[in-house]
Amino acid sequence: MSEQQQKTPYDLPDVSGLRIGILGGTGDQGKGLARRFALAGHQVAIGSRKAERAQEAADDLRATDAGLPVRGAENAVAAGESDVVVIAVPWEGHKATLESLRAELAGKIVVDCVNPLGFEKGKGAFALPVEEGSAAQQAAAVLPGSRVVAAFHHVSAKLLLDPAVDAMELDVLVLGDDREATDTVQALAGRIGGMRGVYGGRLHNAHQVEALTANLISINRRYKAHAGLRVTDV
To answer: Domain Pyrroline-5-carboxylate reductase catalytic N-terminal, which positions (predicted)?
Structure first.
C-alpha cells in the first residue's frame, strides 16, 4: 500500500453510476468537464438556455471522441435528469440561473465551480466581492434544498478539452458542509485521469479558493503554462 493510500482516513463512495449534468456546458470549462466525465463512463447531460446550443456542444465532443455518452438539453432538463449537477455558468448569470432552477436542483448535489473574477487592462484578473461571501455561498443561499459543494475551480479548460492529454496531474479542492456530498465530489474528481479530490474545508472557506484562480491566471500568463495545484503530505 502506498503512503498516500495509508494516509487516506476513509473510503470514498462508488460513484461510477452517477449521472452528471453540466449547466454552462457550452463554455470551455463546462464542456471540458463534460468530456472528462463522459470519458470516465458517466452519462452526461450538457445544459444551456437553448437545447440547440447544448446539443451542438455535445456533438462537438463526440466529433473528437466518438461514442461519448453525452447529450445536450435545456438547463431544466439537464438538471432534472442528473444525480449531480455542476454549475459552470458565467458569474454574471450565476444567481439568476440558479433561481430559475431551484425546483429541478432540490435534493441534488450541486457542484459550484464558478469564479467571480474581474479583468482590468494592464492589471489582469482579480477577485470580485460577493455579498454572500463567495459564489458557492450564493448558490447555497439561493438553493436551500440542495447540497452545495464548491470544487473544480483550478482546472484548465484547455487541458480538459485537449485529446492529447490523457491525465491531468492535479488536486481538486472540495469544500462543503455536507460530509456525504463532499465525499461524493472527491470521488468524482478521482474519476478523471490524474486528478484527486482533497477536502478543503467548510463552504465558508470557498472565497479564497475561488479568488486563488486570479493568481493562477497570472502564473499561466507569465509562464505560458496551465498551472494546477498539488497538496503535499496528504
So the answer is: 19-116
Residue with cell 449534468: 21
Angle at 182 between CA 155 and CA 234, to 5 degrees: 70
The least confident of 120-124, 153-157, 219-223 is 120-124
Q: What pTM was computed for the model?
A: 0.94
Q: Are 177 and 203 in contact (CB under 8 A)?
A: yes
230 burial (CB, 10 Å; 0-12 / 13-18 / 19+) is exposed
For residue 92, give the DSSP letter: G
Cα 224 off chain centre by = 23
Residue where the block lists cell 461514442: 67
**Domain boundaries, given as residue ranges, for the chain:** 3-223
Gap between the Cα atoms of 99 and 47, Å rounded? 15
In sequence order, which residues have a C-beta less than 8 Å from that of residue 64 and are 6 or more positions away?
Answer: 35, 163
β-bridge partners, 118: 126
3-223 CATH fold: Rossmann fold (3.40.50)
